[in-house]
Write a structure and sequence with these properties.
The complex is a heterodimer of chains A (343) and B (213).
Chain A (H helix, E strand, L loop, with lengths): L5 H9 L18 H7 L10 H13 L5 E2 L7 H5 L4 E2 L8 E2 L22 H17 L4 E5 L3 H9 L1 H10 L1 H25 L3 E5 L9 H18 L4 E4 L5 H7 L6 E3 L6 H8 L4 E6 L1 H7 L2 H14 L3 E4 L9 H17 L4
Parallel strand pairs in A: 1-4, 4-5, 5-6, 6-7, 7-8, 8-9
Antiparallel strand pairs in A: 2-3
Chain B lengths: L8 E9 L5 E10 L2 E7 L5 H18 L2 E2 L7 E2 L7 H11 L14 E4 L4 E9 L2 E6 L4 H17 L3 E3 L5 E3 L7 H12 L1 H13 L11
Classes of the chains: A alpha/beta (343), B alpha+beta (213).
Chain lengths: 343, 213
C-alpha cells in the first residue's frame, strides 16, 4: 500500500478504511513538563497563549511521532468562557474548574454568552489551531475539543448537585442539557472553521458515577445530534469502564470512541462491532507514568491484536510521563506491523 | 528533526525546580556496556539551567558518593557499580531542594533523634553492613535504632539482620557512607517519605471531573 501522510492515515482510520499502518493518536493531550521545557511553553500559560499552546501541541508530531496534534490540553477552556472560576495551577498540574463554586443552580441561570468564541480562553484555542495548520501544513491531523453538556453540567452546577438533579428531576436535567449543548455546538463549529480535522467531545458520563442506562436516557440522542451537526469526525471521550454503554455509543454515528484502559480491547471491539472506530487505550497512571517502554509496547500490541483502529493513551497523559514511554507507542506500532501488515 | 534525546530510562523527575525558573530535572539511567550510569538532564535551554544541572551533578558526587564514569564528565556511577535505585531516587529529590551554590558537605552518620531524645549513629562495619546504635543505650533509643534500620531497609532496599534487627546490609557489599548520611533523616521518618512519594505520584494526572473537587 502507498505510504500515507499522518492526516490521510487518521482520516482513513476514523472511517474504518484501509491504512498503511495503524495511526498513533491522542485525542486528549500529550503535554508533559519536559516537552514544556523543550519548547519553552509551560503550563499554565500554554493553556492561555495561542503561540505557546501551538508550540507545545506540535511536539506530539515533531518529537514523539504521533500522527495527531491536540492543542486543547485541558477540559476547562469554554468553562472559563461560561464564567466558571478556574484554578490555573502551575507548570506541573492541570488547571481545573473550582466546582465548589458553581456558577449556575437552575435552568434559568444557564446562559451561553455571546462572546463564547471570542473569550480569551476559547479564542486562544481557535488561534492555536490556525497557527498549527500554518506551521505544520496539510500532512498532520489536527484535533480540536469541545466539551459535552454533561461535563459542562458538572463544571457549572457542581458534580453533586448535577447528579442529584438527574435523580430528582430528570426532565429538568434534560432541559439543562438542551440549553448547555449550545456551547458544545458553537465552540465545536468555531474550531471547524479554524481548521480542525476532528473534534474530541469529552462528555464525562463516567463509569464510576453514571450507568449505561443513564447514557441511553440522557445523552445518546444528543450525541447523535452532535454527530450530525458538527460536520467533521467526532471522537467521543468518556473515562472509566464503559462497556455497558458502548453499544449505545456505537449507534450515535460518531466517528470514534476514545476508551479507557479499564475496558478490555477485544471485548470493546466485539461490542462496537465495526460501527464506530476505537481509540486507545494505553493505561496512563500506571503504565505511561511509572512503567517502562516494554510495558507500554505490550499494551499497544494488545490493542493492535484486537484490531483497535487508532492506538494511543487512554486519556490526557500525566504531565510527568517520560518521553521514552511516549515514544514507545509509535515504535511498538511500527514493530508490530513488521510482522502483521495492516488489514 | 526532533530535539528530544535518547538518554536511557528516566528513573526520577523533579518536575518544577523552584530554585531555577521552574525547570524540570530528570535523572536518567543509561546502560552503557552493561554498566549502569546516571545522567542529570533538563530540556530547558539556558545558562541558568545548565548551571543548575552542574550543581545537582556535583551534589550527587559530594552528598551521595557517586563518581564520574570513565571517560565522561557528566555521567556518574556508584563506585560499587550497583544501581541502588530506590535510595538514589529519594536522595535525588532531596538534593533538588538545595539552592544552587549552597555548600555541599556530606551529612554525618550521627543524628539527633527526637523520639529517642538522643543520638543515633550508623556505624560502618565494612562489607556494606551498617549498625544503627543509640549512643545512650536507653530503651527508647534502642527501639528507635530498630525503627531506623527498618527505615533504611525500605528506602535503600537493604537487608535487615540481627536480633534486634539493627544491622542493615547493602547487596553490593560496599560501603556507602554518604548515601547513609544523606538518607538518615528519611529513615527516621519513613512514613513521611512514603506519603511524599504518594502525593507526587498523584500530581499531574488529570482526573475526570467526577473525581475532582
Amino acid at each position: 500500500m502507498k505510504p500515507m501522510t499522518s492526516r490521510q492515515r487518521v482520516t482513513a482510520a476514523l472511517r474504518r478504511e484501509p491504512v498503511d499502518r495503524t495511526p498513533v493518536c491522542n485525542p486528549t493531550s500529550v503535554a508533559t513538563v519536559e516537552l514544556m521545557d523543550l519548547v519553552d511553553a509551560h503550563f499554565p500559560s500554554a493553556n492561555r497563549d495561542p503561540e505557546k499552546m501551538a508550540r507545545l501541541a506540535a511536539t506530539s508530531y515533531t518529537e514523539l511521532g504521533f500522527d495527531t496534534v491536540m492543542p486543547v490540553f485541558s477540559i476547562i477552556q469554554e468553562s472559563s468562557a461560561l464564567g466558571c472560576n478556574i484554578q490555573w495551577e502551575e507548570k506541573d498540574n492541570w488547571p481545573t474548574v473550582k466546582m465548589s463554586e458553581p456558577v449556575w443552580s437552575e435552568l434559568d441561570d444557564i446562559k451561553i454568552p455571546d462572546n463564547l468564541e471570542t473569550h480569551p480562553d476559547t479564542q486562544c484555542v481557535l488561534d492555536a489551531i490556525k497557527l498549527l495548520r500554518k506551521e505544520l501544513g496539510d500532512d498532520v491531523f489536527i484535533i480540536g475539543k469541545t466539551m459535552g453538556p454533561w461535563s459542562l453540567g458538572y463544571h457549572c452546577f457542581g458534580v453533586e448537585k448535577f447528579l442529584l438533579m438527574s435523580l430528582d428531576d430528570p426532565d429538568m436535567t434534560m432541559k439543562c442539557l438542551e440549553k448547555m449543548k449550545e456551547s458544545t455546538l458553537r465552540f465545536g463549529k468555531a474550531q471547524i472553521e479554524a481548521g480542525a480535522d476532528a473534534l474530541t467531545l469529552p462528555d464525562h458520563a463516567t463509569g464510576d458515577l453514571v450507568s449505561g442506562e443513564y447514557y441511553d436516557r440522557f445523552l445518546k440522542e444528543m450525541h447523535i445530534e452532535f454527530a450530525q451537526e458538527l460536520e467533521i469526525p467526532i471522537i467521543l471521550h468518556i473515562c472509566g469502564r464503559t462497556v455497558d454503554r458502548m453499544d449505545y455509543i456505537a449507534q450515535t454515528g460518531m466517528a470514534a470512541f476514545h476508551f479507557d484502559s479499564k475496558n478490555d480491547p477485544q471485548e470493546s471491539m466485539d461490542i462496537v462491532s465495526g460501527r464506530i472506530s476505537l481509540v486507545g487505550n494505553v493505561n496512563n497512571p500506571e503504565t505511561l507514568f511509572s512503567k517502562e517502554p516494554d510495558d507500554v509496547a505490550a499494551e499497544v500490541t494488545k490493542n493492535l491484536a484486537a484490531g483497535v483502529q487508532l492506538v494511543g493513551p487512554e486519556c490526557a497523559i500525566p504531565l510527568q510521563a517520560s518521553i521514552e514511554n511516549l515514544k514507545a507507542i509509535p515504535k511498538a506500532v511500527r514493530d508490530y506491523h513488521k510482522s502483521h501488515p495492516p488489514a | 528533526m526532533g530535539k528530544t534525546l535518547d538518554l536511557g530510562q528516566r528513573i526520577e523527575l523533579h518536575s518544577m525546580d523552584k530554585h531555577c525558573h521552574d525547570i524540570s530535572l530528570g535523572l536518567y539511567l543509561m546502560e552503557t556496556g552493561g554498566a549502569p550510569r546516571f545522567l542529570v538532564h533538563t530540556y530547558a535551554d539556558s545558562d541558568d539551567a545548565r548551571a543548575r544541572v552542574a550543581y545537582i551533578r556535583d551534589a550527587l558526587r559530594v552528598m551521595l558518593g557517586l563518581v564520574a564514569a570513565d571517560g565522561t564528565s557528566d555521567e556518574l556511577v556508584f563506585p560499587c557499580g550497583a544501581v541502588h535505585l530506590r535510595a538514589l531516587k529519594r536522595a535525588f529529590l532531596d538534593l533538588c531542594k538545595l539552592e544552587t551554590g549552597a555548600e555541599l558537605i556530606p551529612k554525618p552518620l550521627t543524628v539527633h533523634d527526637k523520639k529517642a531524645d538522643g543520638e543515633l549513629t550508623a556505624v560502618n562495619l565494612g562489607d556494606g553492613v551498617y549498625e544503627i546504635s543509640s549512643r545512650d543505650g536507653s530503651d527508647a533509643g534502642n527501639k528507635r535504632a530498630v525503627a531506623v534500620a527498618r527505615g533504611f531497609a525500605k528506602i535503600c532496599e537493604m537487608t535487615a539482620e540481627g536480633d534486634p534487627a539493627v544491622r542493615i546490609r547493602f547487596g553490593c557489599g560496599s560501603s556507602h557512607d554518604e548515601l547513609i548520611g544523606m538518607l538518615m533523616f528519611r529513615a527516621q521518618n519513613v512514613r513521611a517519605a512514603m506519603q511524599e512519594e504518594e502525593m507526587a505520584s498523584a500530581k499531574g494526572v488529570l482526573a475526570a471531573p467526577s473525581q475532582q473537587r
